[in-house]
Amino acid sequence: MSILSTLLGILFFLNLILAAAIIFLERKDAGATWAWLMVLFFIPLLGFILYLVFGQNLTRKRLFDWEDMKKIGIEGLIQNQIHTLKEHRFPFKNDISSRYQDLIYMHLINNDALLTQDNEVKVFTHGEDKFKALLEDIEAAQDHIHIQYYIFKKDQLGQRILAKLVEKARAGVKVRVLYDEMGSRRTRRGFFKELLSAGGEVEVFFPSKIPFVNLRLNYRNHRKLVILDGKVGYVGGFNVGDEYLGLNPKFGYWRDTHLRIEGSSALAMQTRFILDWNQASRSKKIAYDLRFFPLSSFTGEAGVQIVTCGPDSEWEQIKNGYIKMISSAKKSIFIQTPYFIPDVSLLDSLRIAALTGVDVRIMIPNKPDHLFVYWATYSYIGELLKAGVKIYIYDNGFIHAKTIVVDESISSVGTANIDVRSFRLNFEVNAFLYDQELSEHLSSVFMDDIKKSRELTLEGYHQRPIMIKVKESISRLLSPIL
Predict the structure, then answer these.
(1) Would you tell me which of 65, 180, 263, 360 could form a disulfide with 119, CB atoms 3.0–4.6 Å apart?
(2) Residue 455: its pLDDT value, please?
(3) What end-to-end distance do the CA atoms of the chain give, in Å?
(4) Catalytic: which of 137, 180, 343, 407?
């Protein structure tokens, strides 16, 4: 027997053992199991190394813990809302919240997501407007500024925001910045040197323990949160970088959706930030302080729930919220997402809605920023076209918004895309909005975007070149692990 045949035999035996390991580790997700087995079959041994970096399950141990959580009194508030909802005596402030109390109840039970009803919400769809307002709020902050972004670039926008943070830190405001290592991979801690010298604090989510190797590469904190003085919060799709101002020629105009929320929901965002911060920080954990949760009287009227999810969760809370919204639709469902790789449950819910006469419309970009994801998106879109779903390709630059509006009554805006990565792998946060005026506004934004889009018809989809069909097929097979 030659040395080559011996090595091939050993490699084949190792591949069988590694395949068995993957089957065992991924036993709860057949789609992901088959996708990884295909990778292992075509790329023996190296495929398993890729699995160790990209595919291993994140342990269900409690990643986020805050010993002072009970001091907020949030557990009592949650239990009170659950009981009053069960007994049909919850004091709803508007008819929309009352109509969707089953969705509210689900988020309470599965995610401890309190409903707050005193929020004033402003919608941003242009980067310049969002960052102008953010810089003004940073300037007005008196006590603390908590900032969390998946991407925080060291370009012109990043430097503008950093300069303002340094100024506030020097004035005595407590500034904390949390960013994701992979999302902000070109940004080093040295970029924040001046902020650190001014008394600010900076932490990195899931940093590499080995230089240039991150074994938790596949699990990233995709949340974007800013909380100012515990009274104002920002959540949505915009990261910090020049491309979000439309300054990257590759993408052109950047169309996104972000919210500024002034009200008690800012306190829910505050809790999420502190949990994430304390997970990332070893020595500068945040302890309970009343100034983080000020007892303010807000005058807004919008009902809001801040819902989070991540690979540490047993339930896919945001996805479940999407499905519940879709299944409740009577007239219309408007969706904007840069990536559309739904699992079977969400795909079926959209198909059923369309087949029962609901006006289902989905808007996706006209250009890819991740090629495999882009072609996988097209494969799923083709299925929905057959069911009567209307598909729009946004042509005025790149659309990055993550929004759903149902019956112009309820809506969701946040960081979660309609894809497996957002549902199972990334740490995400969305605001679920129970407000007629806000939902009608987001619907009008969608309709305005249609004017800058072209409709993809079933006939047009069938006429796509054979090469695109091949790309779709390959990407579809890999979609459970994209």
Answers:
(1) 263
(2) 97
(3) 41
(4) 407
Q: Which of 130, 146, 168, 402 is catalytic?
A: 402
Mean pLDDT, residues 181-188 = 92
Cα separation, 139 vs 116, whole angstroms: 26
The amino acid occupying position 153 is K
Active site residue 449: no
Measured between alpha carbons, how far is 233 from 294 in angstroms, rounded to an integer?
13
Q: Which two tokens stand for residue 145?
A: 């500024």
Q: Is the pLDDT of residue 263 over 90?
A: yes
Q: How many helices (H) and strands (E) does the chain have?
A: 18, 19
Q: How many CB atoms lie within 10 A of CB 77?
A: 15
Kindly state the average pLDDT of the residues 260-272.
Answer: 97
Instruction: Return d(Cα 158, Cα 161) in angstroms, integer.
Output: 5
Active site annotation includes 285: no
**Averaged pLDDT, 211-234:** 84
CA 66 to chain CA centroid, nearest Å: 22
Instruction: Tell me: pLDDT of 14 over 70.
Output: no
Q: Which residue is listed with tokens 């104002």? A: 232
**Pairing mode of beta strands 340-341, 418-419:** parallel
**Is the model more confident about 229 or about 341?**
229
The catalytically annotated residue of 146, 164, 168, 224 is: 224
In angstroms, what CA-CA distances link 242 with 84, 124, 150? Answer: 47, 17, 14
Residue 222 falls in the annotated catalytic set: yes
Tell me which residue has tokens 């945001």: 318
* Apex 58 CA angle, 55 and 64, nearest 5: 150
* Those residues with Cβ within 8 angstroms of residue 427's Cβ, 6 or more apart along the chain or in another chain: 219, 220, 221, 222, 223, 276, 308, 309, 310, 311
Q: Is the pLDDT of residue 23 over 90?
A: no
341's enclosing H/E stretch is: strand 340-341
pLDDT band at 217 (very low <50, low <70, confident <90, very high): low
Give the tokens for residue 216: 């938790």
Which tokens sit at 113?
């997501």
| The pLDDT of residue 477 | 63
Q: Residue 390 and residue 360: Cα distance in Å, rounded?
A: 6
Tell me the longest C-alpha to C-alpha distance in the chain: 82
Catalytic residue, chosen from 276, 400, 435, 471, is: 400
Q: Which of 289, 256, 297 is nearest to 271 (CA)?
A: 289
3-state secondary structure of 335: strand
Residue 165 backbone dihedrals phi, psi, to 5 degrees: -65, -40
The catalytic position among 107, 222, 324, 471 is: 222
164 has pLDDT over 90:
yes
CA dist 446 and 335 (Å) reads 8
How many residues are present in the chain? 482
Is 331 marked active-site? no
Query: Distance between CA 107 and CA 115 in Å, rounded?
Result: 9
8 Å CB contact between 108 and 77: no
Paired strand residues for 454: 393
